[in-house]
Structures are given as C-alpha cells and as structure tokens.
Amino acid sequence: MPAAGKSQRFRDKHYKKPFAVLDGRAVWLHSAEKFLNRDDVIQLILVIAPEDREDFDIKFSANVTILGIDVVEGGAERSDSVEKALSRVKAEADFVAIHDAARPCLADEWIETIFEAATRSGAALFGIPVTSTLKRGNSEGGKSPTVTETVDRSNLWEAQTPQVFRRDWLLDAYAQRGDIQATDDAQLVERADHPVTLIEGSPLNRKITTKQDLKLAGQILKILPKPKVAGTGNPFADDDLFR
After folding, report:
1. Is the pTM of this model over 0.85?
2. Cα distances (angstroms) measured from residue 2 to each of 60, 99, 155, 235
C-alpha cells in the first residue's frame, strides 16, 4: 500500500493526504482495514516516505503493532517504493495486491471481484471507461494552455487500484524495469508481456488528491455498498487510536 508520495496538490501544512483525518481516522487506515479484515490476506505492507517516519511512529505505532502491519520506507518515486515493498512480501504469497493508501472509498465486494479476476487470469485491475472529451494542451512559456488536439477516447480507461498480480509476474516485471518510473504497476506488467485484465470499477473508488476530494470521500463513505456479513474483524475500529 503506497503512501510515500509528496502530496503536493493536497496543500496542507499539517498532513500529507494518506495521513489526513477522514471520518475520525487517518485516510490510510480506512484503506488498510478493508484488506486486514480478509482471511485471504496474509500480510499488509505500508510504504511511507523516510522523512515521515518519525511523525508516523509517534501517531501510528500502536496501530501498526496491534494490526500487524509491516512498514517500509519508500524511494524517490512510486515504482521505487513498490519495489522496496516487494522485497518484504512473504514467500507463501501467491498474489500481490497493490492499492493506493489515498484511495479509502473501497467496498468489500469490489475487492472480492478483483481478487477473483486476478486468480483466473493472473493479473487484473479496476478501471473506468473514459466518457469525457479529452484534450491535449500546450502550456509552454508559463501561459494558459491551448488545445493542440482532441484525443480519441475510444477504448481508453482510467486506471484505479487495487491492482492484483501473480507474484512471479510482478517480480518479473520489476526485474525488467530498469530506470522506468511507471505511474502504475500494471504498466510494468504489460511491458513484461503479461496480459492484464480490465474490470470495470466504480467512480466512488476515488483517489484523494486535493482537499475537495477529502470532503467528497467523507460523503462517499456513507453510501458505499455494505458488507454482506455484519460486524468487523477489527476490534479497535471505533477507538480513538485511529485518530
């Protein structure tokens, strides 16, 4: 679960977006609990920036200990961070799911869907078909951008997470990465000639980038599909520990 970004567009002097408070708890904890409550998840690795380590430990060391989360310090870019986390994945794991820590509005049934799809095909990701008109802009010289072309949106998808891969495929993809800084992990798996299945996701599965996104996420949490089984496997779900 990558949480090592700089959060430049979030523009908050107190929090980076994964650590901002959403409905009484840190954003990353909302994301993490969806996986920790599953019997088929044997490990959760959270990747944080080295400069966040001291503050993270002060605020969340109890959560990490109680929930059994492994915390890894990331690298300069997303791919560097994920590669560091991959070196800590337990040997008995057959599949690896990668989910943005700043994407907290996730329903249990969606995780079930993407896990099943990856088990069948070897790799799967959620995506949303692009429906808006796409424009390519030119912003040279610091001026307002002007349109250089209208991009054909046919067969274009907006990628989401979770993205789930056979562990050997993902390790193979990262072994071939070189200096490439991919914007998502599926890009590297695709380059390694492994097929990746697209599963239509939900607009509710929104990544928090700005403070407006955080406000919207608070409303989305109220309307997410509810778990089929009542209750939670997390005995501290409503505790102040998660603030």
Report:
1. yes
2. 16, 7, 28, 25
Place of tokens 């520990």: 241
**29, containing H or E segment:** helix 27-36
**pLDDT tens digit string along 193-218?**
999 999 999 999 999 998 899 999 99
Spatial distance between the Cα atoms of 16 and 26, rounded to a whole number of angstroms: 10
CA 27 – CA 214 distance, rounded (Å): 9
Count CB neighbours of 203 within 10 A: 10
Q: What is the DSSP string of 141-186?
A: GGSPPEEEEEEP-TT-EEEEEEEEEEHHHHHHHHHT-TT---SSHH
* Separation of first and last alpha carbons in the chain: 19
Was domain 2-134+146-237 assigned CATH 3.90.550.10?
yes
DSSP category for residue 52: G
Q: How many helices (H) and strands (E) does the chain have?
A: 7, 11
Show me where the domains of the chain are located: 2-134+146-237
- With H, G, I as helix, E, B as strand and everything else as coil, classify residue 90: coil
